Amino acid sequence: MNPLLPERMSAAERLDEIAAILATGFIRLKTRQSRKLSARPEKSLVDFAGHRSRHGATNAGAEN
Which of helix, strand or coil describes residue 7? Predict the structure, then answer.
């Protein structure tokens, strides 16, 4: 963040400062919401296996 007084900043600098403050607040909000969901086991998405690719080598030890 810019330590200058708003009166000494250009309009673009003030907008950048506001955008940075809003982005930080948004990230904090999302992090807080994510923690609440992670604390509830029924909302966890970790309880299932991921999708397996149908492409790629079928023999792990085979040379190409």
Answer: helix
Q: What is the pTM of this model?
A: 0.49
Residue 56 token pair: 């790629």
**3-state secondary structure labels for all residues of 10-63:** CHHHHHHHHHHHHHHHHHHHHHHHHHHHHCCHHHCCCCCCCCCCCCCCCCCCCC
Q: Compute CA distances 23 → 4, 19, 36, whole Å.
A: 20, 6, 20
Tens of pLDDT, residue by residue over 10-56, are: 999 999 999 999 999 999 998 888 877 666 666 555 555 556 667 66
